[in-house]
Amino acid sequence: MRIWLTSLCAILLSCFSLQAQQDTLHMAFSVQGKVIDADSGRPVESVLVSVPGATVATVTNADGRFVIKSARQFGKVHFSHIGYNTVVCDVTEGTPLTVRMIPLALTLEEAVIVSGDPLDIINAAIKKIPANYGIKPTLSKCFYRETVRKRTRYTYISEAVARMYKNGYDEGVWRDRVALEKSRVLISQRVSDTLSVKVQGGPAQAQYLDIVKNHEMLLNRETLEQYKFEMGSPTYINGRLQFVIKFSPSGTITENALYYGTMYIDRERLFFTRIEMSMDMSDPLKATRQIVVKKPFSLRFHPKEMSILVNYGFDGEMAQMTYFRSTFRFNCDWKKKLFATSYTAVNELVVTDRLQPVTQIPKDKVFRTSDILSEKAAEFMDPDFWKDYNIIEPTESLEHAVSRLRKQK
Fold this sequence. Notes:
The protein is mainly beta. The protein is built from seven helices and 22 strands. Strands 9, 10, 11, 13, 14, 15, 16, 17, 19, 20, 21 and 22 form a twelve-stranded mixed beta sheet that branches. The chain has a four-stranded antiparallel beta sheet with strand order 4-3-6-7, with no helix packed on it.
């Protein structure tokens, strides 16, 4: 049996073309390492890892580990994350890095400086979107991964490299396009894992859920009227001071479930640096209507979490989306069974390079939001599958899952 899931928050799975582009560069130089909190020693996840003066980038995994590759040698790597001081490290190929990020400490004076009416700040940032994000089209290379876990065990793993074409931020998302270069998939063969999640959209969902560009998600007058806002404690991201604005449902009766979340807005340039959203699950029936498209009649569905994170980087001139992640947790049980089974689906995408020249993606290459990755991708077999691509390094648990799923073949 399969559950078909969709929502404004996570337009479920994906499909990728199996044919790699011929102009992929050979990544002859690479640096790997681990990022930890300098105080606790714990790994820091989702740190943006980039090369100063270049366009290549990636993020750390849940273990804090990363590998960043380039066709040309580089001597420094830049690390930035919310709530930490930015770090720039000298690198030598073949020598792993251990990067210790120091948590930020803000003074009371800085907290006073960033005070203000939160809705006024949001509206001012909305007006500056075309100037801050640009009105010219862009073309990016991205790495995308989606996983499904049944309780703590992975039953589905899929990865792909895609090209993302985006029109200017004075337009909506509807003319933006994704084309796929390479993909692979592993699916559990156990009979007990026949309940699977079909997630439509894949990397196109990150395009659709570019909240700054898709104003229908949150940043329009009618939707903002359904929320209340309050100022949070300020913080730095990539060395830039941020307004921190928390939002929550105002109590207005709405047809759809709303969200709790936080916006981070650059104090100087007034661009959205980071947006976190989590669907209000207080009305399970309302949340379910938004999420489930189709399911077996006798299967009971219980949504637990639907959350979104979108990061935007700033290159000194323009802000651009750098990272997207959606997390979907739910329980399912059959009416004749006593216990429910928990599932977690995670989709994430990182922009790994900015491409020139910017060319439109042909219609016959477009990745559709209705496509399903598992029906198109090749099997996980070649250990050097991503040799010449920047990716999000798999965690230890994901590597173990790959080994177990391979043995089922």
